[in-house]
Amino acid sequence: MSTEEKSAAPRSLAEALRVRDDVSLAALLRSRPDLITPVPTDLTQLATRAGTRASVVRALERLDRFALQTAEALAVAPDPATYAELLRLMGGDDEDPAVRAALPRAVALLREQALVWGADDRLRLVRTARELLAPSPQHPSPTGLGPTVREATAGMSPGRIQEILAAAGLPSTHDSVSAVTALGGLFEDRRRMAELLAGLSEESREVLARLVWGPPYGQVTHDPAAHLRALLDRGLLLPTAPGTVVLPREVALHLRAGRAHRAPEPVPPAVEAAATHRPQVVDATAAGQALAALGTVAELLKEWDEGGPAVLRAGGLSVRDLKRTAVALDLPEPVAAFWLELAYAAGLIASDGEADERYAPTPAYDEWRELPPAERWAGLVRTWLTATRTPGVVGGRDAKDRTLSALGPNLDRSAAPEVRHRVLALLAGLPEGASPTEESVLARLRWERPLRGPERERREEDLRSRLARWTLSEAELLGVTGRGALSAPGRALIGAPEPSHPAPAPEGPGDKLPVHHRTPAPPAPPAPGERAAAEAAAARLLAPLLPEPLDHVLLQADLTAVAPGPLERELADVLGVLADVESKGGATVYRFTPGSVRRALDAGQAAADLHAFLARHSRTPVPQPLTYLIDDVARRHGRLRVGAASAYVRCDDDATLDEILADRRGAGLGLRRLAPTVLAAQADPAALLEGLRAMGFAPAAESAAGDVVIARADAHRTPPRAAPEPVPDGPPAPDDTLLAAAIRAVRAGDLASTAPRKPGAGGGAPGGELPRTGSAETLATMQAAVLTGEALWIGYVNAEGAASQRVIAPIRVEGGFVTAYDHTADEVRTYPLHRVTGVAELADDVT
């Protein structure tokens, strides 16, 4: 490299960022959004922020496995390292072709994220990353390598170093520095090292083999055995502390044939298909699941229409109430928790905020019910994709060893949306109709986001793996997938393109359909602006797959009604009040009972209305037993009236009241006769109603005016509630508008901070600080610049107290303001002079 090229090479990360174009800077800020919050004042501050420990740790955690292995190799390479040296560390002496092909991408990714800077002949890992990844006794390197010879011999006596040289067959030197250099040169020389190792015993070589892939440290006694003494004498093992020895890095690399990692992974593992199905089968299965999902959510909210379970003091649902809900929905508790959390995340249920706080549907539920089925489904799945609340952790323990309850706090897992989208995107990369093996999906996710450190891996990898497994099962429950394969509506929802070559495949397990690593990467999550379009596209694809709602049922003589498919909402609502659901499946069976008929009468229906309704919506004649049941319940309904006195019962038939008074089951109600047709009670009206119904009567509630109170099932709603906001995993990704504005501001600030000034200008302000001049000098310099047209460097503090540096060309100075062309903002602006901290003239060659 020539002298001019050396002088042009960047000497710091800030200089490397300074020569980047806007596209490259935008890629950096997009991949590391924490660097833009808040927007740096200039490129020097951006470089400083990019080198902070928190930011570097976050960037390293988001690298794929091969890029992370490349960074780990640079941490044990010379600083700076050449690309050829890095290639030897990654590919070994034989330079693995797969590593050679993948390494340019990994280096480019590290450069893009400002973890590596410099040209190929001087690659530098940022200092913080080197400190995190380089080996040390407290923090072993992921490569398993130990310290270099120079680092391991730092505290060794010169005499001992000379003894090692002699035992290794090297001539003595005049100083320790040259001795260590000679020893390191021996270990890096493949031929001489082979000769040195050939002279060792089999036991000595076995010790080296145990240490070569790490950990490189071992224990020895004060009087080591002969095979260990041979290694110590030749410097193949070096002491680091009393009783502790280490295998030098150069020796380990020779034994590894130059590899920094035992198993480089340049190629992501393929996602394999466990089975393939015809796309039509997948879509039909998914549509059936989608319809069942809508029915489950509707049934859940119907159960809570009159007010759901109480809210725990710490928030959430009690274990007992979760069990009751699971029994009512005929589902396992984990699945019931999933539907509860989904409805909650969608804003369909919430706490009512009353003194006796309970869960209930929100007004948004009524709006949701009015939507077409496909749109209702798309809204639920969109909520699922973006929600950070994770129902799978319900029943687990938090950091304080408290049980995590459904709908309670501490269920947010910020990684959930990313994992869900990645799993679905991997499914989108499979041939159409193919369902993946779970283990291949997990292996791919581990490659794309490996975790550093054994303790963290045990803790967090388990969560990410569970999130992936939950995603596969939840996607099937929702109908995003059918038989494990991504459906057409699911593909549209995540923004994946339709397969260009649909592959018809026979039904059956065991087909291996690997996703080649050179296929295009699965799509990124849709941006907020694209999400609505993706949702609408998914709804359009699902709508033709859903059956049309039916306007009829089949009445049977055993007091049941069979709905052979989904019913129209109005029919389903009325039938849900008039009868109880007995079984669900492909067809829903409803059973008519005295209690269900009374419920319909309580809701304001008359017997004639019920007869007409059944005759209108039944494809079979109304059975006589059902007609008798309705007439019999209607005949007795309302003969008793309950009102508030504390409570009273009135009835025109005094014999009925005599019967009530004689019934021992009514003893707890505190009944006594006030008149031949009126009984008074100590219980409140609601308890009195329930007590009389339990005794087999059919009382009706009465208002203060003596009118029958109609009880409607959908009477209880919470006040308007907003759905819970997802908890983001770090700063949100900036959009193109924010990126463009941020880059413009950073470059403007950098121009102001690096513009050369005339010697002695700016009140002696050192580089990076605002210029400081008195008000008189500032005014005089501004007025002179108006006459000469020269540009000035100023310090400025805005009304919020934020300081910045600017390069301006004054146009007019009057009334305590300066109007100037601001080179940093690329526009004409006016600044109050009292907010200018100082002014300095720029060098003559700066405009």
UniProtKB/TrEMBL annotation:
InterPro entries: WYL_dom, XPB/Ssl2_N. Pfam families: Helicase_C_3, WYL. GO terms for molecular function: helicase activity. The keyword Signal does not apply. Residues 721-734 have a biased composition (Pro residues). Residues 553-675 form the Helicase XPB/Ssl2 N-terminal domain. Residues 777-839 form the WYL domain. This is Helicase-associated domain-containing protein. Residues 489-533, 716-736, 752-773 are annotated as: Disordered. The keyword Signal does not apply. Keywords: ATP-binding, Helicase, Hydrolase, Nucleotide-binding.
